[in-house]
């Protein structure tokens, strides 16, 4: 039993878990307000990370300028996507909506591959020191940053939905579209806003991960990994996505630990969340915090 | 035969159950279908190897896509893991042939049955969950099966893949495109006839009832769990046979070929062709097989201007698939089958379209 490795993996799990939580939150945001299951969530990360990388490397913009510029681009991108692609599909059956986001996912993944190639590219050095010592363990600065940003995003989400007028409108729309509309809320702009917010926050996560691991098409796998997380937490629960993210992040690393110490199966790190996913679906399909679908006959 | 009986009257009234259950609406369409199959028999004599290759591809992908259409289009369950079954069939057939020495002739249907068992296993969650949740469960099964292919050395040969022998019958080896075409054609006709008959039977109508309104279906005495799980099993049977044909055609099966992208391509086939349409499945498969060829051809055309384009061909093909899915869902959500119906209706009523 290797305690140091276990501890290191647990810390990794918490860090990756918060990132999963943030991405899952974006996914839940779109699902909750527009009832669209976004299979292209991972591509949002990818597009954000590549855009930022491109601005920093090609135009050699400083980070403090290129970063907000990327986020601004993602706002426009998210709104455009909703208006052009998703709006015509309102009221279509669930298979159409799923397929259109899958179509978007492969389209953008291929487009990014076409534009930037398939090799992993690294970001320019943003911080002076690459790792610092926390409680006797070496932790990369970017990881610390990712934790800080993730927690900041979560708190911002909380206050946004609790107190801001737009956030309230979004919650009302999520609760009941018709009632919200009759009270004068523009459901269209709420839909666009939720896609924009989701795109921006995903891009943020993408850039953070890109800074640590480099940017490559592997980033879009986060969009798949988000499914175990949201199913565990409940598809329409923001709190659930954070809790689910942490649990799946830790579970992944524990699986890795068991694998390397005892089992030696290999690849368990990638596949364990999917086994967990199937088990959760069989036992508790609506997750920890999700609302149960009650159908009227 | 007079012209009058070949055309259906303006209002399509069917007054007997028997007339509602026929496979072909009029005798002429039946004769046309038979004539079309007979015409296909002569294709290997005249077609170039390139054309034959494409038609064989359309054949085995079409069989698998038809299975997916049964589960998605007719039963209304979403499956994102169809390529895993396709791969399972390919590996199972190669394994039965290599390890157990079963001739390929028997290995193909047996591989279909084995894949059906796998499909029933994966379909178990379908008894409990539906819609979106089921889609995610099948997505998970896709990754789990992919992982299984890479891991199970005894079954798939692991990362090095499995060899698949040629199809032989009475000592005659179907090792050329010309001869293998007939094997694929046989299975295509068999599976499509089987599906047409399944859909007009009690079981087929039960599947459609489950799709249209599952609560009403259950109240009318249809066992929901049974039919949902069964539809997964049958769809896996199709995918298994399609995959086995694929494996014995290429002669080599590698675990990398059956990714989520192929599953999406299968879904694209049935959505572009038309959900819940049997001939639409074939139209969609033709579209999806020809689309990459079209992209290859057009990049060849532009490569004089942009020489880099050829290297990024793989990306362009994928982009075309994604774009085709999006555009069809926005502009023609009912697929090519619906478009074909509209074209026929236009000419039937021409020039007075109302």
Which CATH architecture of chain B would you pick? Orthogonal Bundle
- What percentage of amino acids of chain B are in beta strands? under 5%
Count of individual beta strands of chain B: 4
What is the CATH C level class of chain B, in words?
Mainly Alpha
Low-confidence segments of chain B, given as residue ranges, are 1-6
| Number of helical regions of chain A | 11
Total domains of chain B: 1
**Structural class based on helices, strands and sheet pairing of chain B:** mainly alpha
Question: How would you write the strand order of the largest sheet of chain A?
Answer: 1-2
Oligomerization category of the chains in this entry? heterodimer
Count of discrete alpha- or pi-helical segments spanning 4 or more residues of chain B = 17
Estimated helix fraction of chain B: over 70%
Biggest sheet record of chain A: 2 strands, antiparallel
Largest interface: A-B, 42 and 43 residues
Radius of gyration of chain B: 21 Å
Distance between the termini of chain B: 28 Å
Helical residue percent band of chain A: over 70%
What is the CATH topology descriptor of chain B? ABC transporter involved in vitamin B12 uptake, BtuC
Description of the molecule:
The complex is a heterodimer of chains A (297) and B (354). By secondary structure, chain A is mostly helical. Chain A has helices at 3-34, 41-58, 63-86, 94-116, 141-163, 165-175, 177-182, 187-213, 222-233, 238-263, 268-283, and strands at 131-134, 137-140. In chain A, a hairpin with a 2-residue loop joins strand 1 and strand 2 (137-140). Chain B has 354 residues and is mainly alpha-helical. Helices cover 72% and strands 3% of the residues of chain B. The longest helix of chain B has 27 residues, at 224-250. Classes of the chains: A mainly alpha (297), B mainly alpha (354). The A-B interface holds A 37, 85, 88-89, 92, 94-96, 98-100, 102-111, 113-114, 224, 227-228, 231, 235, 265-267, 270-271, 274-275, 277-278, 281-282, 285, 295, 297 and B 72, 78, 80, 124-125, 128-129, 131-133, 135-137, 139-141, 143-144, 147, 150-151, 215, 261, 264, 267-268, 271, 275, 312, 315-319, 321-326, 329-330, 333.
């Amino acid at each position: 039993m290797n305690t140091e490795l276990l501890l290191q993996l647990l810390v990794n799990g918490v860090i990756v878990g918060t990132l999963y939580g943030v991405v899952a939150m974006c996914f839940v945001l779109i699902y909750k307000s527009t009832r669209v299951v976004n299979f292209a969530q991972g591509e949002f990360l990818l597009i954000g990370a590549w855009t930022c990388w491109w601005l920093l490397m090609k135009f050699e913009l400083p980070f403090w300028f290129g970063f907000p510029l990327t986020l601004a681009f993602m706002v426009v991108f998210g709104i455009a996507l909703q208006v052009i692609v998703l709006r015509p599909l309102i009221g279509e059956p669930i298979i159409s909506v799923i397929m259109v986001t899958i179509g978007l996912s492969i389209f953008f993944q291929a487009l990014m591959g076409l534009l930037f190639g398939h090799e992993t590219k690294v970001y320019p050095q943003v911080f002076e020191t690459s790792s610092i010592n926390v409680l006797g363990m070496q932790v990369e600065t970017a990881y610390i940053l990712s934790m800080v940003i993730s927690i900041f995003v979560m708190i911002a989400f909380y206050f946004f939905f609790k107190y801001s007028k737009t956030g309230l409108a979004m919650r009302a729309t999520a609760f009941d579209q018709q009632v919200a509309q009759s009270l004068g809320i523009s459901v269209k702009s709420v839909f666009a806003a939720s896609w924009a917010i989701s795109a921006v926050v995903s891009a943020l996560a993408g850039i953070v991960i890109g800074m640590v691991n480099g940017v490559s098409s592997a980033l879009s796998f986060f969009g798949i990994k988000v499914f175990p997380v949201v199913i565990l937490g409940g598809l329409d629960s923001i709190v659930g996505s954070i809790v689910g993210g942490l649990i799946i992040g830790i579970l992944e690393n524990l699986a890795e630990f068991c694998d390397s110490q005892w089992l030696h199966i290999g690849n368990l790190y990638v596949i364990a969340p999917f086994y967990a996913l199937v088990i959760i679906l069989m036992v508790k399909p609506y997750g920890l915090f999700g609302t149960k679908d009650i159908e009227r006959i | 035969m007079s012209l009058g009986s070949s055309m259906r009257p303006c209002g399509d009234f069917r007054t007997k159950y028997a007339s509602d259950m026929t496979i072909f609406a009029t005798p002429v369409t039946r004769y046309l279908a038979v004539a079309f199959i007979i015409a296909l028999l002569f294709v290997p004599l005249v077609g170039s190897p390139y054309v034959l290759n494409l038609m064989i591809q359309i054949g085995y992908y079409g069989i698998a896509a038809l299975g997916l259409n049964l589960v998605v289009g007719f039963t209304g369950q979403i499956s994102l893991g169809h390529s895993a079954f396709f791969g399972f069939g390919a590996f199972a057939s190669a394994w039965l042939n290599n390890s157990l020495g079963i001739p390929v002739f028997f290995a193909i249907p047996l591989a279909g049955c084995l894949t059906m068992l796998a499909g029933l296993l994966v379909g178990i969650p379908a008894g409990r969950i539906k819609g979106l949740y089921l889609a995610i469960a099948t997505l998970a099964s896709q990754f789990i099966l992919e992982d299984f292919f890479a891991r199970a050395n005894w079954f798939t040969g692991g990362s090095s893949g499995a060899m698949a022998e040629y199809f032989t019958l009475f000592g005659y080896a179907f090792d050329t495109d010309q001869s293998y075409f007939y094997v694929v054609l046989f299975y295509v006709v068999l599976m499509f006839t089987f599906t047409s008959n399944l859909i007009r039977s009690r079981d087929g109508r039960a599947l459609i009832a489950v799709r249209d309104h599952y609560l009403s279906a259950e109240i009318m005495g249809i066992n929901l769990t049974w039919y949902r799980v069964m539809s997964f099993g049958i769809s896996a049977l199709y995918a298994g046979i399609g995959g086995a044909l694929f494996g014995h055609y290429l002669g080599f099966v590698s675990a990398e070929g059956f990714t989520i992208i192929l599953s999406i391509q299968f879904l694209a086939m049935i959505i572009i062709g038309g959900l819940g349409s049997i001939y639409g499945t074939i139209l969609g498969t033709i579209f999806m097989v020809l689309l990459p060829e079209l992209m290859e051809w057009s990049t060849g055309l532009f490569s004089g201007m942009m020489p880099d384009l050829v290297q990024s061909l793989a990306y362009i093909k994928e982009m075309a698939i994604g774009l085709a899915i999006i555009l069809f869902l926005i502009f023609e959500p009912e697929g090519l089958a619906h478009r074909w119906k509209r074209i026929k209706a236009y000419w039937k009523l021409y020039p007075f379209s109302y």
